[in-house]
Specification:
The complex is a heterodimer of chains A (109) and B (115).
Chain A (H helix, E strand, L loop, with lengths): L3 E4 L2 E5 L4 E7 L5 E7 L5 E6 L3 E5 L2 E6 L4 E6 L8 E9 L4 E4 L3 E6 L1
Parallel strand pairs in A: 2-11
Antiparallel strand pairs in A: 1-3, 3-8, 4-5, 4-9, 6-7, 7-8, 9-10, 9-11
Chain B lengths: L3 E4 L2 E4 L5 E7 L5 E7 L5 E8 L2 E5 L6 E7 L2 E6 L8 E8 L9 E3 L3 E5 L1
Parallel strand pairs in B: 2-11
Antiparallel strand pairs in B: 1-3, 3-8, 4-5, 4-9, 5-6, 7-8, 9-10, 9-11
The chains are: A mainly beta (109), B mainly beta (115).
């Protein structure tokens, strides 16, 4: 099946710093989503981005489907950005969302 | 209005018991899923239903039995609970058939602890 790798696995930032999270996938996909799992365990939808670039406030994402990767940019990080960030890809052949390994982000004061 | 809701949020039970987790979505979606998140935070699909029909059963022990009474509900029943079943279980839904892969939305999770 498809492999989804995220990097870095762990990231510690000071408040106000910027960061880039990467998601690599091993096969063509129909869909890619980014999620934030907050410290209370909720999975929050950030982006639905099969290709191209989207922005939402301090967050933006870019997916280059032909090169099989996606990037999530967090600018001016805040402590509320802490948690685990997952990318997940959907392949029509598998008919399911396959999650990446996650990036655990801690933003400190 | 909660889009995908699961009950209960926490479940503590003894080994050998049978328990159910309920899931409802009010988004009008056709496809619903159950995912399991283990202690290392890895999320893996268990089941997928499209319009009440089972699409995916991802090598889950047959102690786990999903039931979809209608397309807005997907419940998970677990028989003879084992210590290794302790995890967080997430329900999710998405519009359209399983091929399209439209945006999926997740419930708040059910933390199951087997003692």
């Amino acid at each position: 099946g498809i492999q989804v790798e995220q990097s870095p696995p762990d990231l510690i930032l000071q408040e106000g710093a910027n960061s880039t999270l990467r998601c690599n996938f091993s096969d063509s996909v129909n869909n890619l989503q980014w999620f934030h799992q907050n410290p209370w365990g909720q999975l929050i939808n950030l982006f639905y981005i099969p290709s191209g670039t989207k922005q939402n406030g301090r967050l933006s994402a870019t997916t280059v489907a032909t090169e099989r990767y996606s990037l999530l940019y967090i600018s001016s990080s805040q402590t509320t950005d802490s948690g685990v960030y997952f990318c997940a890809v959907f392949t029509g052949t598998a008919s399911k969302l396959t999650f990446g390994t996650g990036t655990r982000l801690q933003v400190t004061l | 209005d909660t889009a995908v809701s699961q009950t209960p949020k926490y479940l503590v039970t003894q080994m050998g018991n049978d328990k159910s987790i309920k899931c409802e979505q009010n988004l009008g979606h056709d496809t619903m899923y159950w995912y399991k998140q283990d202690s290392k935070k890895f999320l893996k699909i268990m089941f997928s239903y499209n319009n009440k029909e089972l699409i995916i059963n991802e090598t889950v022990p047959n102690r786990f039995s999903p039931k979809s009474p209608d397309k807005a509900h997907l419940n998970l029943h677990i028989n003879s609970l084992e210590l290794g079943d302790s995890a967080v279980y997430f329900c999710a839904s998405s519009e359209g058939g399983a091929i399209l892969g439209t945006e999926a939305f997740f419930g708040q999770g059910t933390r199951l602890t087997v003692v």
